[in-house]
Amino acid sequence: MIRALLSSTALATALLAAPALADDQKAPEADVAGATGANGVAELVVTATRTVQPIEKVGAAVTVLTQPAIEASQAISVTELLAQTPSVTFARNGGVGTATSLYIRGAESHHTVVLIDGVKLNDPSSIQGGFNSGNLLVGDISRIEVLRGAQSTLWGSQAVGGVVNIVTAEPTTPFTSSLSAEAGARKTGYLRGAVGGASDKVTWRVAGGYYTTDGFSAHKTGKEADGYQNAGASGRLRVKLTDAVSVETRAVYSRGKNDFDGFNTDSPEFGRTKELVIYQGLNAALLDGRWNNRVGFAYTDTDRENYNPARAAVPMTFDAAGKNKRWEYQGVFAITETWTATFGAESERSRMRTRSPSVANPNVAFRTGKTSADSLYGQLQAEIAPGLTVTGGLRYEDHDAYGAHTLGQVGAAWALNDNATVLRAGYSQGFRAPGLYELFSEYGNPALSPEEFDSWEAGVEQRFLEGKVRASATVFHREADNEIRFFSCSFGATDTICAPGGVFRFGYYRNLQKTKAQGLELIAEARPVEGLTITGNYTYTEAELAAGANTGKQLSRRPKDLANLSATYRWPVGLSTTVAVRYVGKTYNNEANTVAVSDYATVDLRASYPISETLEVYGRVENALDKDYQTILNYGTPGRGAFLGLRARF
Q1: So what's the pLDDT on residue 612?
Q2: How far apart are CA 61 and CA 522, in angstroms?
Q3: Phi, psi torsion values for 636, nearest 5 degrees
């Protein structure tokens, strides 16, 4: 109640102070799928305010990966691409396609919202309702915004650690096409193609890709290679009905098959995953552009099946499906030239089913669950003094099982000295209802309570030497209460929660503890001489348990130290070469911190050369020093591998 009152008071004060309306102000676009200039301009961001904004007006830490940066990285998986940004690390039980957890600022993987073209990708049937980024390949992506820190006011209860907004490419010329192909180590191949065009009335694009690799053993000491194949397609269509009204549809589909190993042993097991994302929307600009509106429907469908051929009689070991339906309205109104209101309503319906057939019970019934939540949100952004932009917002969420909650968020950005100096600060609250898997799966617990969060951050960005050097520092702090964790049952336990109905289970989800995370992000970029660019980031994170027997212990698989450093030189002949180093500090495989996973550093080498205006050849050597390392204890990681590719645009 106190949290809601403080937040309501902050926003109400700002609203009452708003000046009179202006007559000629245009509202920012009500867009969450991308920003104008996405192909190379990093000064405009969308995710922080759900509208297109100059980055110097944003009070939160944001990293933007534009299309040139994405192509230059030569990354195949979005996970590896995100890991090059500050405060982002991951853990994966094998190669590309296996289960992957993405951590931002030490938060749990399911505390990060992942969007593609504005649609949330969380899977209600997955563990704790998060998104497994293992199947997410770079594909036709043109832009990624990584918003760090709690963002529940605008993006819902799951956005505690941050938001990753992925935008697929949108054509800007009457006709455009592209094709790329690469091959390399471990019999890896990746083929991608796209075609599209834009006219005064219609903008369209379709793209597809296929990736295959023989891989390596998911188990650290295994001998059998675990491969992965993925076929994907995406498309978008926008039709301009009038100068002020347009309709659009977007879709992304992928189908993957990954081999994986059982616990502590080689295994012939494999999994299949199908993911479908659909968005349909209507955009309308009213009052001569002062009031922009978007009405949309989003749908996600994730189907997963695991098989073990060694169990000939009952090969299927897991079967799950999760679906989300989301209706939403968003409006952006220009109150004056310097005051903008963003507001909206959302209604989400989620359902899941999951089962684990066994030899003893091959026809085990599905465990099912469904939930709904309705939300209203509002945000006011105002430039209250030259260069000083203040943002305040509220979210009211009514969950069918956990009732109504009100959250608040405030932030400020102060751009000084012609934007050479930018000061940022923000405070936000978070609330996350338990996921369907936590409530209704074979490990579920219907008695769970919601998780609650408070977080703040403050930072400064400084440009030197006429923009040739840029540096920033951000401190952050987050506290969590009632955080949900998996609790292991003692073998043979007979209590009603470890053995419901007299049937023993290995564990269940419960509100175990409080946690806290605090740290420092340092980012720098320099262009000391023409053609040379040096970039680096370092993050120090204390992500710890704050209650219970393990108070003060580091959260599992969260490193305290994390760093990236790269140097790129573009030679006079057009050749571009890059050396990139990534360092991940020591982690622990358990919360008692008795089982450690060693720190490691990897070195990647990359090069590209434009043969002509439309053709480019590129290549890379991943893990050039052939470092032997782990992200999860006893699970394998790729050794040295060389890859060569060709990219064409027409």
Answers
A1: 93
A2: 11
A3: -75, 160
| Residue-wise pLDDT tens digits, 27-41 | 676 565 554 433 333
Query: Would you say 609 and 576 are in contact if contact means Cβ atoms under 8 Å apart?
Result: yes
DSSP 140-193: TEEEEEEEES--HHHH-TT-SSEEEEEEE----SS-EEEEEEEEEGGGEEEEEE
CA separation for the pair 591, 288 (Å, rounded): 57
Q: Is residue 12 over pLDDT 50? A: no
Query: Are 223 and 193 in contact, with CB atoms under 8 Å apart?
Result: no
Amino acid identity, residue 547? Answer: A
CA atoms within 13 A of residue 504's CA, in its CB half-sphere:
8
Judge contact between 157 and 430, C-beta under 8 A. yes
Chain centroid, CA 649 distance in Å = 28
Residue in the structure block whose two tokens are 């675990």: 226
- Tell me the per-residue pLDDT of 350-389, one tens digit each, with 9 for 90 and over: 999 999 998 988 999 999 999 999 999 999 999 999 999 9
User: Residue 11: is its pLDDT beyond 60?
Assistant: no
Q: What is the CA radius of gyration of the chain?
A: 24
Query: Are 302 and 334 in contact, with CB atoms under 8 Å apart?
Result: no
And the tokens for 305?
A: 């099946």
If DSSP codes are grouped into helix, strand and coil, which group holds residue 44? strand
CATH number at residue 513: 2.40.170.20
Tokens of 62: 């944001």
DSSP, residue by residue, 298-345: EEEEEEEEEE-TT-SSS-EEEEEEEEEEEEEEEEEEE-SSSEEEEEEE
Determine the 3-state secondary structure of 553 from DSSP: coil
Q: Which pLDDT band, with edges at 50, 70 and 90, does 55 fall under?
A: confident
Which residue(s) pair with 144 in the sheet?
65, 166
Neighbours of 455 (CB within 10 A): 26
Tokens 């503890």 locate to 513
Stated as kind and residue range, the H or E segment containing 250 is: strand 245-259
- Work out the burial of residue 134: count CB atoms within 10 Å of its CB; fewer than 13 is exposed, 13-18 middle, 19 or more buried: buried
Compute CA distances 400 → 64, 166, 349, 372, 373, whole Å: 36, 30, 10, 6, 6
Query: Nearest Cα to 62, choosing from 340, 459, 420?
Result: 459
Going by the DSSP 8-state scheme, the letter that residue 502 receives in this structure is G
Phi/psi of residue 465, nearest 5 degrees: 50, 50
Instruction: Tell which residue, 628, 624, 629, has the closest CA to residue 641.
Output: 624
Residue 229 structural domain: 2-649
Q: Give Cβ neighbours of residue 477 (< 8 Å, ≥ 6 apart).
A: 455, 456, 457, 516, 517, 518
Give how many domains the chain has, as a whole number.
1
Q: Residue for token digits 């506290």? A: 479
**Matching residue, tokens 């609330």:** 431
**Type of residue numbered 53:** Q
Q: Are 148 and 162 in contact (CB under 8 A)?
A: yes
Token pair listed for 535: 């970039």
**What gap in Å lies between CA 624 and CA 467, rounded to an integer?**
32
DSSP code of residue 129: G
Per-residue pLDDT tens over the stretch 565-583: 999 999 999 999 999 999 9
Residues, the chain, total? 650
CA–CA separation, 393 vs 391, rounded Å?
A: 7
How confident is the model over 509-531, as pLDDT tens digits? 888 778 999 999 999 999 999 99
Q: 605: buried, middle or exposed (CB in 10 Å: 19+, 13-18, 0-12)?
A: middle
Q: Smallest Cα–Cα separation from 30: which of 428, 377, 407, 502?
A: 377
Query: Tokens in use for 337?
Result: 């030239």
Backbone angles phi, psi at 501, to 5 degrees: 65, 20
